[in-house]
Amino acid sequence: MAHTIEKLMALSDVVLTDDHLALLAPFGTVHSTRPGDEIFPAGDPESPLVVVLSGQAGIVDRSDGNDTLLRTANAREFVGELAILTGQSSFADCLTREGGEVLVVPRSSVQEIIATIPQLGDVLVSAFAARRQLLLRASSASLTLIGPVTSPRLEQLQEFVGRNQIPHRWLSPDDPVAISVLNRLGANSEAEVWVVVRGQKLLADPTPLKVAKAIGLDLGVCPGTTVDLIVVGAGPAGLSAAVYAASEGLSTVIVDDIGIGGQAGSSSLIENYLGFPTGISGTDLAFLAEVQAVKFGSRISYPREASALSHDGDVFTLRLDDMTDLRGRAVVIATGAKYRDLGLPDQSTFQGVGLYYAATELEARRCRTDDVVVVGAGNSAGQAAMFLSRSVSNVHLICRGPNLERTMSQYLISRLERTANVRIHTGSVVQRIAGGEQLEKVTVRTSSGEDMVIDACALFIMIGAEPRTDWLRGMLELDDHGFILTGADLGPNPSGMIPFQTSHPGVFAVGDVRSGSIKRVASAVGEGAVVVNAVHRYLASRQGAPEAVAANR
Ligand SMILES: Cc1cc2nc3c(=O)[nH]c(=O)nc-3n(C[C@H](O)[C@H](O)[C@H](O)COP(=O)(O)OP(=O)(O)OC[C@H]3O[C@@H](n4cnc5c(N)ncnc54)[C@H](O)[C@@H]3O)c2cc1C
């Protein structure tokens, strides 16, 4: 995906043909414009697609109090970017620079065009996506985050804006620009982190939800209506379910407590996903999936945490943390898992460049002639150590407890003990990690209380993953670790006959949150696609359900 600027410009600078204009005309209304007219303001939740028929329109960013011209549209060009499809408010003002005529096409019609006129829809979607990427690269300041780099609140907000590809810039509190912006807006309280929205509005220590509301990311998921499918979690599994469900005609809403991407969003390079031989970053993969989901008409709502699920007859109600209720005829739970961490300082610095949560051929290849450290005392840690021992110099297996017997299978312990280049360090704890661009050193406090520094290029953290399923206890059957049981794992009952169906008919679980899942991007995506067939079959079995169009595809 990582297109060059030139390629993005080419995709975004579209000149519409006579055919395009003829196809667009019935969907919009023509307005005469004079220089300086506001066509739509920044923050407009319904900013339309604006096609310039004559004259010139401009997109102006006023976020820092000055007018910055972001781009212009001449005759046959159009103003509009991804916000039109995601339901976000416009990031900037649209003004007339030279009088003439514009064709204004409302958002709902843009969705209709994309669904029904592919030769025009594809041009629009490619341009919208390229423009969003250009906005991000220009770091246009529709949001300014001001706070110390060490602040956890700043980190949470950066994860939110980063995962959601919201144009933003970060300023340290002692940066002269930050001081001037805060003075201009009259910051008069002690706050750790300030967020400036479009140069006008100041938020002190806001939550991601507060920021989302301030920039109009309150994604208009109408609580009053009942959709065919609610998907909880917008990682690879949830995004895949949303893409396939929406493309097969189901009205679909997807909610996430942070934003799109899930764990995959924190992977700098996914090298084992089909079709990307040189790898793809998790953010790019998630972004493309989001574009695909909204292209097919899915609505995405974040940052919203699902906190309770109930049902009344055939309708499920999902309660969100802002007390909104979403209603749906079927529910897919795709809330993933969170790998347990060691809580080491500098951990995020080495994510993907020495710090790993899986030991596959990919990671092993990066460590050929070096030592590696594996932390954990369970079978997954033992298997990882055995696997890595075949290709690296030495494997140091670090476990906190006095021995492995309580937590690891005996056969694995015997193999590890018989493998010459595996060193087992019981009663030991990782203290620190260090390096340059790549991890280089792991400091371990040994059972004797001394610090041992291991020259290692990789640290594999294999201390388990935790699902976040507490809110589903009592409604769904979970395994001993809290993962959701589905299909045949539920034993010989009707739910067990349908793949990915949980113990509650109409509620499905896919991806890492499912008991027994393979924790990979590809398997999560695959499960998300396959579950839609089961959803169709379930809906078709209920009265008044939509046609099971995909059941036999
Ligand atoms: C650093 C890292 C690198 C990785 N690299 C690779 C790799 O290279 N190749 C590979 O195949 N796999 C990789 N993996 C594993 C892979 O990312 C996961 O297997 C995959 O993301 C699982 O997808 P998922 O959709 O099931 O869950 P997740 O990706 O975990 O997504 C779940 C989503 O649900 C949200 N959520 C949770 N609870 C709620 C709630 N109550 N309400 C609303 N939303 C909620 C979460 O915030 C999250 O966004 C990596 C994992 C990590 C952590």
Set out the fold topology.
Elements: H1 5-12, H2 18-24, E1 29-33, E2 38-40, E3 49-61, E4 68-73, E5 78-79, H3 83-86, E6 93-105, H4 107-116, H5 118-137, E7 143-146, H6 152-163, E8 169-171, H7 176-184, E9 194-197, E10 201-204, H8 208-214, E11 226-232, H9 236-247, E12 252-255, H10 282-295, E13 299-301, E14 306-312, E15 315-320, E16 325-333, E17 337-339, E18 355-356, H11 361-365, E19 371-375, H12 379-389, E20 394-398, H13 410-418, E21 422-425, E22 429-435, E23 439-445, E24 451-461, E25 465-467, E26 507-509, H14 521-540
Parallel strand pairs: 7-8, 11-12, 11-16, 12-13, 16-26, 18-24, 19-20, 19-24, 20-21
Antiparallel strand pairs: 1-6, 2-6, 3-4, 3-5, 3-6, 7-9, 9-10, 14-15, 15-16, 17-25, 22-23, 23-24
Bound molecules: flavin-adenine dinucleotide.
Write structural notes for this entry.
A hairpin with a 3-residue loop joins strand 9 and strand 10. The C terminus is likely disordered. Helix 9 runs parallel beside helix 10. The strands form 5 sheets. Strands 11, 12, 13, 14, 15, 16 and 26 form a 7-stranded mixed beta sheet that branches. With 553 residues, this protein is of the alpha/beta class. Helices cover 27% and strands 26% of the residues. The longest helix has 20 residues. The structure holds flavin-adenine dinucleotide. The site of flavin-adenine dinucleotide has 35 residues, from helix 9, strand 17 and helix 14.
